[in-house]
């Protein structure tokens, strides 16, 4: 999957509300954050944090700020999640409850969600990791996505990302005046 196809698929998932929200969110987590069904199925509602109007998803040690439409979809999934064993909403802690009460969705069932919307798991994850590795150093990639550092470094080397540009942008971001502190 090339980068253009990846973004076209992400736009389709964001805007096609004829698809189930759980499939859309699972597909977006794979497309944007390289999350495989095994990791996605273990997400709980506590992995999603909403504070001061920002929605963050904790995939690894460092939470990811979700962009507006993805954040809305994640919050929608928290609100409407239901076990596949019952028809009503459940108080399950799982973001994607499974067929057995108190259990998450199975990895197999979670893997079927992106496939139902036309996403091939392996190639999509590879594309996402490659693109992310061109923009983030291996250590940041590992901490943010919750992947092993050796995997992140391997992707970083394959992508040959420009870490000097990353450091310069991070430095500029840290030196920008914060509008909330300046009263603006």
Brief summary:
The chain contains ten helices and three strands; from the N terminus they run H-H-H-E-E-E-H-H-H-H-H-H-H. It is mainly alpha-helical and 184 residues long.
Keywords:
single chain, 184 residues, mainly alpha, globular
- Bin the helical content: 55-70%
Low-pLDDT segments, ≥5 res = 179-184
Compute the gyration radius: what is it? 17 Å
Largest sheet: 3 strands, antiparallel
Whole-number count of domains: 1
CATH architecture: Orthogonal Bundle
Number of distinct helices: 10
Numbering strands along the chain, what is their spatial order in the largest sheet? 1-2-3
Question: What's the layout of helices and strands?
Answer:
Layout: H1 3-15, H2 21-33, H3 37-41, E1 48-51, E2 54-57, E3 64-65, H4 68-80, H5 107-116, H6 121-135, H7 138-145, H8 149-159, H9 163-175, H10 179-182
Antiparallel strand pairs: 1-2, 2-3
Helix pairs in contact: 1-2, 2-4, 2-5, 2-6, 6-8, 7-8
Account of the 3D structure:
The relative contact order is 0.14. The N and C termini lie far apart (43 Å). The protein has a single domain, classed as hpI Integrase, Chain A, CATH 1.10.443. Residues 179-184 have low confidence and may be disordered. The chain has helices spanning 3-15, 21-33, 37-41, 68-80, 107-116, 121-135, 138-145, 149-159, 163-175, 179-182, and strands at 48-51, 54-57, 64-65. The chain is 57% helix and 5% strand. Strand 2 (54-57) and strand 3 form a beta hairpin. The radius of gyration is 17 Å and the shape is globular. With 184 residues, it is mainly alpha-helical. A three-stranded antiparallel sheet has the order 1-2-3, with helices on one face.
């Amino acid at each position: 999957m090339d980068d253009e196809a990846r973004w076209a698929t992400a736009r389709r998932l964001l805007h096609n509300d004829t698809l189930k929200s759980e499939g859309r969110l699972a597909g977006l987590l794979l497309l944007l954050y390289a999350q495989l069904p095994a990791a996605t199925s273990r997400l709980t509602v506590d992995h999603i944090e909403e504070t001061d109007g920002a929605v963050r998803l904790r995939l690894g040690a460092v939470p990811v700020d979700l962009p507006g439409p993805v954040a809305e979809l994640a919050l929608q999934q928290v609100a409407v999640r239901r076990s596949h064993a019952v028809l009503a909403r459940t108080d399950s802690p799982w973001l994607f409850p499974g067929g057995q009460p108190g259990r998450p969705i199975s990895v197999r069932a979670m893997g079927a969600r992106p496939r139902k919307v036309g996403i091939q798991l392996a190639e999509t994850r590879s594309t996402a990791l490659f693109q992310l590795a061109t923009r983030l150093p291996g250590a940041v990639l590992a901490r943010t996505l919750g992947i092993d550092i050796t995997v992140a470094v391997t992707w970083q080397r394959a992508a040959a990302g420009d870490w000097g540009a990353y450091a310069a942008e991070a430095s500029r971001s840290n030196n920008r005046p914060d509008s909330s502190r300046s009263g603006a």
